[in-house]
Structures are given as structure tokens and as C-alpha cells.
Amino acid sequence: MSEQQPSERPNAVSNSSVLSAYDDHVMPIWKSLNVPVKRAAGCTLEDFDGNEYLDVFSGISVVNVGHGNEAVVEAAKAQLDEFVHGCSYVHPNEPVADLAARIAEITPGDLEKTFFCNSGTEAVEGAIKLARKYTGSKEVVALEMGFHGRTLGSLALTGNNSYKKGMAPTLNDVAHTAPPYGYRCARCDGDQCDASCADELERVIGSHTSGDIAAVVVEPVMGEAGIVVPPEGWLERVQEITHDHDALLVVDEVQTGYGRTGELFASNHFDVEPDIVTQAKGIANGLPLGAFTASKEIADAFESGDHLSTFGGNPVACAAALATIDELEGGIVEHAREQGEWLATELQALEDEFDVVGQTRGLGLMWGVELVDPEETGPQNVSPRPDSELAAAVSKRLREESNVVMGVGGYYKNVMRFQPPLTITRSELERAVSELRTALEHLN
Ligand code: PMP
């Protein structure tokens, strides 16, 4: 058969044919970051028209050990040949057994038992059910600006109205406390927060709840809020207040887990021992898997039939997760930590150089670059006004002129997000930073 050029092929797939099918038949997508993907390897995405992009967003912080990681692909293929599905809660299988044991080893503290589901939001909702069952209490406190998912339970915890418009009512009895967002902290008048800002939790429990709390749910580093890293002692104080109220500390590591912050779990950066850790995103390098892990005592509050998921703990996804953890422990977490240190210095240079860069912050390979209008005062009448238009323009330019895919996030949608595959090379990172500098120069 003679080879046809792509354009001569009948019904040739192109970016526009895929996008048009999406328009017709897929419910709305996130239009602002719209790069069709045909295939991907390492940190490179290829679209249907043959264009290549440097991916510094990892499919929203998921492919931590790189697109197409060989060990992960091989592990998944081997399990596909064995069997694909039996429902892991009906047919106990080796990948689930091995992965649960492995997670007990690698999670912080003495967490021992895991429930497997399919996504982050399910992990958060399952964790709330477990906390309710264990404590006998119902109410939950989460952080303003925090993100925990979009199903109706997790959406109630998500501390950002923009995700809730037209969706209420969500889960009842959720109160919100102030996040450790030093750049715009209401409590400390715009100065850098310190651990005492966590005392707001005590006030919120006192004034917005019955005092009978099942759980306080926090992201150790807030992802969707714009990469917010708490100050020293803040998370420790949150843990103390939570336990004073006989509630469980649920640490949502959906975005921060599996090496993202230069530790296997971000909780390891702090002196805390979470009661429940939620996981998803990076756990299986892109295969759908979520999980929450608790101590034996807490986990045993669930009796048979209390919680179940048909697809949860899919053996192929669990086999991929085991290979992902091997890869992470085989040097990738360390690599992320080292590259992150270099990136921190480079981003600080951008902050010094450009007035529109209000603050850069992060850990490991999870970094945010907050863009502002330096001329105008912003929230709390202290910090410069957040500028979401600048961030949208920078992201668009990076994609269209530089073939770099960089996420935008933040409560005010004004934060550029560096969350590349943790395997990213120094030269790829250099390219991403240099293209970001060029995009910032073009704003003037
Ligand atoms: N928790 C956190 C901290 C997240 O960042 C996210 C996703 N951005 C979720 C929960 C929800 O995960 P999913 O989209 O897999 O439901």
C-alpha cells in the first residue's frame, strides 16, 4: 500500500477535526488551555497537526514520572494481559494488595489502610465519610480558596464561589477558615503570615460551627489557589487546634503527593502526622486512581459495605501506581528537589526584574508566579491588584509563540503554574523560564 500524505487521507484527523467533534459532542472544556494531544513522551506533547509542545503542566500535575514512562507502561500492559477488572472489592487481587502495603510504607506517620477510588474528589468525599463514621460528628472545616473537587460533597469544601455558581445546595455544615496566603492575608494585614494566623481556625470553629467537628481538611500546599505554601508552624498549629476539638486532620495530597513538592508527600515538609491522607493525580502517572489512607484504628470504623466503588482500585491502575512509586523512589523525587532549587532562584530573578511579578512561591516542582497590576492596590488594600488578564495573555503567548504549555491558576486566576513532569531536564526547564521571561517582556 502506497503511503498517503496526511492531508490526502480520507477523514484525516487534525486539530480542527478533533476540536470540532469536541464542540459538537463533549461537554464544555477548559477553553483557555486548549492543546489537542495525539501522543506524548517525557515532557513533550504532539498535536494532530505535528506541532510539539513543552509540557510544564503535566495534565494538571499528574504525569509526575513523565509521559509514556516505560516502566509504568510496561507494568500496565503486563496487568492488561492478566485481567482488567473484577471489582477490587469483590475480587481481591495482587496489584491492590501490593499497592496498599506499599502506600502504608510511604505515607507519613502510621497510616496503614487504604481505600481505592478513581479520582481526587472521590478520595476527599470518602475521607469525609470515614471521618464522620469514626468521630460520630458531622461538620467539616476547610480553607477559603482551597480546592478539593467538583462533586457536590467536595465542592462544598472548595472555598471558591466561582466553582459553585448555579450548583448549590452542596453538602451542609462546612465552614471555611483563612488560608495561609501571606501575600494577601486578611489577618496579618498583608504582611507575611506566621503560625499565629492558624488561630483563625479556633475562631471559625467557635463562631461558625457547633463545635462538634468531624474533620479539618487542608491542602499542605494549596494548588488551585495559586501554589500557596504555609509559613513555618502554620500546619502544625492547625493540627493542634483540630485535635483539641477531637476532629481528624485530613491532608489533601491529591495535587502535592507522589513527589510533586520534592518529597513523596508534602506533609513530610512539616512536623505533622495527618489522620487521613487523600491521593490521586500523580499516584498512577495518569491512569485514573484515587485513594485515601488512614491508621488502622480510624480505617476500621468502616464496616463491610460502608463504602465501595465498582472501578476503585482497578488492577491496571494499581500496577501502574506500583511502577510509578518505584520510579519516584529510584531518583525522580530527588531530581525534582534539585531542579526545584534551581527553579526557585530563576523565578526569584523574574520577581526582581518584573514589576508585574508580584510574588513567586513553591516547593519542589510546584511553583506559582503571581501576576499583578503594580499600579493598583488589591485585596486587603495592601497588595497590588491581581491581574488575570495578564496571566491569560502570558499563557496564550507561551502556547502560540513558544509552544510551551503552562497552566494558569490562583483564586484570582492570575498565577502562572510551573508543574512539569518531575523528570524534566535542566535544559527543558531553562527553556520554560526563558520563554516565560520573553512573554513577560512582551507585556510591556
Ligand atoms: N484535591 C485537590 C487538592 C486537587 O488539586 C484536586 C484537583 N485539582 C482535587 C482534589 C480533585 O481531583 P479530581 O479532579 O481528580 O477529582
UniProtKB/TrEMBL annotation:
Alphabetical list of InterPro entries matching this protein = Aminotrans_3, Aminotrans_3_PPA_site, Class-III_PLP-dep_AT, PyrdxlP-dep_Trfase, PyrdxlP-dep_Trfase_major, PyrdxlP-dep_Trfase_small
Q: Which Gene3D superfamilies match?
A: Aspartate Aminotransferase, domain 1, Type I PLP-dependent aspartate aminotransferase-like (Major domain)
The molecular function terms of the Gene Ontology recorded here are: identical protein binding; pyridoxal phosphate binding; transaminase activity
Record keywords: Aminotransferase, Pyridoxal phosphate, Transferase
Pfam families linked to this entry: Aminotran_3
Q: Give the SUPFAM superfamilies listed for this entry.
A: PLP-dependent transferases (SSF53383)
Cofactor(s) recorded for this entry are: pyridoxal 5'-phosphate
Highest taxon of the lineage = Archaea
Protein family membership? Belongs to the class-III pyridoxal-phosphate-dependent aminotransferase family.
**Name the UniProt record assigns to this protein:** Aminotransferase class III-fold pyridoxal phosphate-dependent enzyme
